[in-house]
Structure formats: C-alpha cells, structure tokens
Amino acid sequence: MRRINIPRMDKLRAMQTFVQIADDGTFTAAAVSLGMSLPAVVRTLAALEAQLGARLFQRTTRRVALTPEGRQYLARCRDVLAAVAEADASLAEDARVPRGPLVVTAPVLLGQQVVAAFVTRFALAHPQVRCSVLLLDRFVDLVDEGVDVGIRIGALADSSLVAQRLGEVRQQVVASPAFLRRHGVPRHPGELRDQACVRLLGPARPAWAFQEAGRRLAVAVDGPIAFNHAGAALQACEDGAGLGQFFSYQVGEALRARRLRVVLEDFQPPPQPVSIVYPHARLLPARTRAFIEAAQRELGPVLAHA
Questions:
Q1: Partner of 65 at 20 to 30 A CA spacing, among 3, 170, 267, 286?
Q2: With 50 as the cut, is the pLDDT of residue 64 above it?
C-alpha cells in the first residue's frame, strides 16, 4: 500500500471518521453521524490507510470489522481526539473567563493618580488575571515590548493600534500664590520669556504651547531649575520656584487645595485626548476585552473633564 501524506487538519478529520466508523459499524451509519456523503467517508478512510500503510478494517458486504492494527490505532485515536477536545474546551473557557497575564502601561503621574487604583480594582474583581503595570514617561512600543494595553495622552500616530477614547486633558500654566505675589501674574504667554519657569528636561530648549485667536503659539521658556520627572517639577512649583506647564490631571489636587493657581487660561491650547490603546486583533483574549470595557466604564467618567 503506497503511503501518502495527509495535512494535519485533514488528519484529525480522518481520525474522527475512522473512530466513527468503528463506533457505528458501517460506512453508511458513520456518514449519517458525520454529516458526510458515503463516498467521502470511503475516500477519507482509504487515504488514512494509505498514509499509515496499514489496513484498519476488514470489509464485508454488510459490516466492517477492525483488524488488529485497527484496534491498536483506535485506542490511540481516541486518546488524541480526547486531548484535542480538552484543549479546545480549555481555550474556549479562556475566551469567556478573564485569566492569564495582562501588561498595562501608562504615564507616571497619570498612572499614580488614576490608573493604579483602577488596575487594583480590576485585579481584585478578576483574581485569575495577573496584572503587570509599567508607569513610564516615554513612548512604549506595545508590540515590540510585549504590552497588551496602554493609556496614552495625545493623538494616536501608530495605525497598527486601536484607540478607544476615555476623556481629555488640558495643558495649564500654574504657579504658587506666593510666587505670583512676588513676581506678578502674567497676562500674555510672551511674558514667560522673562519669568522663572520650572522646566522638564528634553533634547531641546523647551517651548510651551498656547493658542491665541485660534492660532497655535509656542513660547520658549527658561529658568534656573529643570527636572526629568513631572512630579518633581510640580513640587518645585508648589514651593515657589517658578511657573510650570502641566496636564490638568497632574495639578488638579494642588489647585483644589489652593497650593497652585492657574494663569493664562484664555491662551490654553486645545485639549488632548486620553485613550486606551491596544494592538489590532480580531480575537482579543477575554482578559484584554474585560480590561478595556472596565476602563471605558470606570476611567471614562474620571477623565471626561480631567
């Protein structure tokens, strides 16, 4: 008997056909059980036997009977098909129940002030999900760095990601009341060129963004102190070191406590969106879907007017 190769998926179908013939006792009954035509059942068994190089049934006009090789192969086929069914059932359960590792990233202060508490609530509600949170003030390539979901501020430039809008944030210039009493309240962004500004370190001299009469306005600022972390810069502003430009969620608590005041409100640039982003995927794991839905439900109201 000449051996032939059967593709892997067809091989499983052939094994299922063989087992059904053995269970039903005839090709005709197996064809009915499998929803196949009788010739298709005969061809499938013939291809399987040719691939194995062994006869699995003795045929008579009324019934088929397993050969010794067929009885041996039947037991192995039942084991294989049971393992496949178990694997399918396990994966189907995973598709319904959130479980497994989930890696999330967010900017540092947004993560500390908003996202961390939400992730904690999510983890407590889904004990089979193992959450890892990366708070980073740099661009994170979700695909290359193995991150499932990101919370991002600003327009999405990467077309390989899906973005679901959660809310928006504004850029605000703030200073402590004591600083403003000593140096006066600026009335136009251009005045900042001569003011002490607390800066965030970057590759170039920083320019703060504003809007005047519907047009973008950039003002280069300088000052005696700069930080590589927004939290430290914010504290310096609260301590009276100068003016600073921050996102609205970063200064919200300090404004409510009156440790800082907003200036130049009429020149604020347009709000920037806050989005939950994730790689394009037709079939998202249940844990990722659950996280996205919970973020829209819980973070959306928080960030709607942050």
A1: 3
A2: yes
